[in-house]
Amino acid sequence: MLEHDSIKARPVPILVFANKMDVKDSMDAVEVSEGLGLAELSDRPWNIEASNALSGDGLDTGVKWLSA
């Protein structure tokens, strides 16, 4: 997706919700970040937010980061 012409040349911020944090043995946000190679993204801001869509945990924090 980041290689698409309409995104590649622009520093579009990336927000990843690491959802399902309530599930036993789920990966934590650091493991998800490493798996996606987010640390390699040096040309744009990015953030990963541990979240649980059912309870809403982490959603506000992620959206506030994106809107800032």
List keywords for this structure.
3 helices, 2 strands, 68 residues, alpha+beta, Rossmann fold
Please outline the helices and strands.
Elements: H1 5-8, E1 14-18, H2 29-36, E2 46-50, H3 59-67
Parallel strand pairs: 1-2
Description:
The chain is of the alpha+beta class and 68 residues long. It has a single domain (5-67), classed as Rossmann fold, CATH 3.40.50. 31% of the residues lie in helices and 15% in strands. The protein is built from three helices and two strands. A two-stranded parallel ribbon has the order 1-2.
**How is the biggest beta sheet arranged?**
2 strands, parallel
**What is the radius of gyration computed over CA atoms, rounded to a whole number of angstroms?**
13 Å
In DSSP terms, counting alpha (H) and pi (I) runs of 4 or more, how many helices? 3
SS elements, strand count: 2
**Mean pLDDT score:** 92
CATH superfamily: P-loop containing nucleotide triphosphate hydrolases
Query: What's the domain count?
Result: 1
Based on helices, strands and strand pairing, what is the structural class? alpha+beta
Query: Helicity, in percent?
Result: 25-40%
Share in β-strands: 5-15%
Q: What letter string, H or E per element, gives the SSE order?
A: HEHEH
Specify the CATH class: Alpha Beta
Low-confidence stretches: none
Kindly report how far apart the N and C termini lie: 23 Å
Based on CA inertia axes, which overall geometry fits? Answer: globular
Indicate the CATH topology. Answer: Rossmann fold
CATH architecture: 3-Layer(aba) Sandwich
The largest sheet has its strands arranged as: 1-2
